[in-house]
Every structure is written in C-alpha cells, then in structure tokens.
Amino acid sequence: MVKMLTKMEETGLDCGGNALTSVPKFYKGASVTPVYEPIFLQINKLKKKVDAGAKYVQTQGLFTVEALETFMNEVEKELWKLGIPAK
Prior knowledge:
This protein is mainly alpha-helical and about 90 residues long. Helix content is about 45%, strand content about 10%.
C-alpha cells in the first residue's frame, strides 16, 4: 500500500495508469511488531516499508518498555550496518 501511494505521488497516475486531476500528498506510515521473533525478520520488513516511502512507524501493542528498548537497539545496530548513523 505504501509503495502504491508513493508511486501515485511520484507519477501522478492512479493504480490503473490513469492521470490524476490533482496529485495528493500522503503522510504515509507503517506498523511493526517489536516483540516478534526472530527480530531480524521484523527489521527487514520495517526497512522495506521505509524504502517504500513510510515516514513514520507505529508499533503493535507493547507491555514493557524493555521490549521496545530491545527492538530499538537491534534497529540501531542494523542502521550502523547500512552505514546510517542513528539519531
């Protein structure tokens, strides 16, 4: 869905290839499940969503701060592997 919306913004065409009378600007987001194992699968999915144009991420329900910290530490490690310094 995110990829489709990004393509619409970039090309000015709908999914059927028809020209849009006005090109919408979407604030595209995605979800992630930080407590899913193995965690690297969720990080890979998250990367694909960001590459497709997601500008924000909302997590599925969490019950401990530690679960989010663990996930974010793994995301930060992955960013460094990609040469992207964490903010």
